[in-house]
Amino acid sequence: MTKAFVVGHPIKHSRSPLIHGYWLQVHDLDGSYERIDVEPVNFGDFLRSFGERGYTGGNVTIPHKEAAFAGVDRRTERAERLGAVNTLWIQDGLLWGDNTDVLGFIVHLDQSLGTGWEQSVDNVMVLGAGGAARAVVAGLQDRPLGRILVANRTLSKAESLVHDLEGGAVRLEAMDWDRIGEALAGCQLVVNTTSLGMAGQPPLSIDLHTMPDDAAVADIVYVPLKTPLLAAAEARGLRTVDGLGMLLHQAAPGFERWFGVRPQVTPELRALIVADIEGRI
Length: 281
Ligand code: ATR
Prior knowledge:
By secondary structure, the protein is of the alpha/beta class.
């Protein structure tokens, strides 16, 4: 039997076992995917010993993504660029790390807006400068865009993000949180990567009225599925991209690596996770 895991602290609320469990069942595979709670002080030991404990690999979530980056033997180019690892596996005796959040975000964006969406997008605004913002910016950077503005409450974190990721063809610019309103008028896409709008958190209140009529609004928060930001965008007649797709699509490359089958993000899988989210709000 092939065994995989998701490791984090806390890990109780992770939806990854539901996603991978669904795929294991659909493909009738002899495998398991379990939650493992590991405190930060024990994470290094865990990284070095999961192979001996019979695991093929797994996902890494909060707060271990940076420690996983530091602790692996080899990293993919994407993980290298981001400084964070969310997918682990062992290959030829070496511990490898990838970051599939980048692909998860961009695949879902392409599916939601339709391929070629970049043709009508010059400026993109990314709100937030944490790990999720890095994955979003890295995904957007591969596209022929004019400029990516990164606005964050703590400006210095936006500046570090820009410093660490700049160098491609797309211009990156850090921006004051107070300037969001005026800058949105020139943006055709805005992406929220902050925790604002999540159940139990204050909403993200930005005024979308100045945005162009053909603009799109994406949120990576998926509890609730329709965040106050997405509801405001819908009311304003803008296209919306929800946060659940990123979660589902980031899971697929890991599953393929551990279990050898490329899984599909189907409407049935989406409905399963939506039911779980709605049952718990
Ligand atoms: P993740 O890895 O999921 O991106 P994170 O690194 O904790 O999580 O980042 C959370 C983001 O939400 C940060 O950009 C944070 O802004 P700061 O860097 O200023 O802390 C943002 N955030 C959280 N609460 C916020 C609030 N009340 N107002 C504005 N931004 C907020």
